């Protein structure tokens, strides 16, 4: 393994963790926010996730290529984190009492609140994707090689679960049915992200960036979509298709996961139940990244997918607290281990010197396609979900196990696609050995 400096590992941990904390608030709690504050429907939650996915993809395409062209990552990472924090702080103003004063109607205020949340979500996604999706991930690719990429990706991939643990733990003391709780949360998270952007100025080393000298900016944006590039890097695109299927499976249930625990299963203390599962899954993911370095993609992705699918089956069949914990542990371990494996293989297959240009392509597979298709499937399978009446007379939906059944079906499709991918990879390896 090529050794990296302590400064690199510090930058990786801090930027990845805080970035993922911000993404957890967006991906898992914005849904809860508009559900509890504005009584959002499955279609409205789905629309928010879709809009964010499109914003993330366009941003990563544009900024990733730009950072390649200028040969700088640090300025985009640090500036992006600072603006990201400010955009999160803006959510503190999206409150029913403030909006009711503007609209003079609680119903209109709720509708306006959902609209503003979706718009602000796209704004914060622009800054977050600039800092994290486009430039931090390109920096990580630039700064690692095939001997240490799995180890670095293992740390990077475990951060979403560590972030979930931090956010779950931090939110335990808040009543999420109160607007004041959300105001405090947005102020805290926004301030932390902003501060990390400032800290990044002093700890990020930009020396590993390989500047892209050839081509014009706009041609670089579409570089990864050229037929000639696709032909030259066929395995990369096939792995991206597999990654997209993996992401679709996750996005079917993830927007509704906390609501499912709290409302459907009536697990008011779901944080205490889920915390051990998150800790264990984080440890599994950390070591799983190192396992990838030793055994490679084909052998590493299969156990991750089996864990994920087994978790789905348990969550479909049982509502007992202990079994829900086991199912959640398997699901989360498979999810994050799979993220580590797919993330590492895509970095390995990314052409040298073009990491920024290919971040947009990665986001298409990791975010755009899953973000459009997954929530749409989730909304569809919840179309006839049971509802309950809130104290103000409005109704809210109750998520059911259909989200896990649908996720399992997509995971089966992924398993079949991986069989095809392994066959193609085996033929390529045989051909390369003959040459």
What descriptive keywords fit this protein?
single chain; 435 residues; mainly alpha; Growth Hormone, Chain: A; two-stranded antiparallel sheet; 15 helices; 2 strands; 1% strand
Helix percentage? over 70%
Mean pLDDT: 87
Strand content: under 5%
The top-level CATH class is Mainly Alpha
The number of E-state strands comes to 2
CATH architecture: Up-down Bundle
Succession of helices and strands: HHHHHHHHHHHHHHEEH
Oligomeric state of this protein: single chain
Specify the number of helices.
Answer: 15
Question: What does it look like?
Answer:
The model has no long low-confidence stretch (mean pLDDT 87). 80% of the residues lie in helices and 1% in strands. Helix 10 packs antiparallel against helix 13. The protein contains 15 helices and 2 strands. The protein has 435 residues and is mainly α. The protein has a two-stranded antiparallel ribbon with strand order 1-2. The two termini are 27 Å apart. The chain has a single domain, classed as Growth Hormone, Chain: A, CATH 1.20.1250.20.
């Amino acid at each position: 393994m090529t050794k990296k400096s302590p400064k690199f590992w510090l930058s990786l941990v801090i930027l990845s963790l805080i970035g993922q904390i911000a993404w957890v608030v967006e991906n898992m709690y914005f849904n809860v926010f508009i559900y509890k504050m504005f009584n959002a429907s499955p279609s409205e939650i789905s629309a928010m996730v879709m809009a964010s996915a499109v914003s993330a993809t366009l941003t990563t395409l544009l900024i990733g290529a730009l950072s390649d062209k200028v040969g700088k990552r640090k300025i985009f990472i640090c500036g992006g984190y600072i603006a990201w924090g400010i955009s999160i702080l803006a959510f503190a103003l999206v409150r029913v009492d403030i909006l009711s004063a503007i609209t003079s109607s609680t119903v209109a205020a709720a509708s306006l609140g959902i609209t503003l949340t979706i718009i602000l979500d796209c704004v914060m996604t622009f800054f977050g994707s600039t800092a994290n999706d486009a430039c931090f991930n390109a920096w990580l690719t630039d700064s690692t090689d095939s001997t240490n990429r799995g180890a670095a990706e293992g740390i990077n991939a475990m951060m979403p679960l560590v972030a979930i643990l931090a956010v779950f733990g931090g939110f335990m003391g808040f009543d999420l049915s109160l607007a004041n709780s959300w105001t405090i949360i947005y102020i805290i998270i926004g301030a932390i992200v902003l501060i990390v952007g400032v800290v990044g100025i002093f700890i990020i080393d930009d020396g590993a960036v390989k500047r892209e000298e050839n081509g014009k900016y706009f041609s670089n944006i579409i570089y990864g979509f050229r037929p000639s590039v696709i032909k030259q890097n066929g395995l990369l695109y096939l792995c991206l298709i597999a990654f997209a299927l993996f992401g679709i499976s996750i996005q079917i249930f993830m927007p509704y996961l906390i609501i499912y625990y709290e409302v459907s299963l009536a697990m008011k203390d779901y944080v205490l139940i889920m915390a051990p599962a998150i800790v264990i899954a984080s440890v599994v993911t950390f070591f799983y990244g190192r396992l990838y370095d030793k055994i490679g993609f084909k052998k590493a992705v299969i156990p991750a997918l089996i864990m994920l699918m087994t978790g789905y089956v348990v969550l479909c069949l049982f509502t007992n607290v202990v079994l829900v914990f086991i199912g959640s542990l398997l699901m989360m371990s498979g999810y994050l281990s799979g993220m580590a494996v797919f993330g590492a293989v895509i970095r390995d297959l990314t052409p040298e010197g073009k990491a920024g240009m290919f971040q947009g392509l990665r986001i298409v597979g990791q975010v755009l396609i899953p973000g459009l298709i997954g929530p749409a499937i989730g909304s569809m399978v919840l179309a006839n979900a049971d509802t309950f009446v809130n104290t103000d007379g409005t109704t809210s939906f109750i998520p059911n196990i259909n989200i896990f059944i649908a996720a399992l079906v997509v995971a089966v499709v992924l398993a079949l696609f991986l069989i095809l991918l392994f066959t193609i990879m085996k033929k390529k390896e045989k051909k390369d050995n003959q040459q």
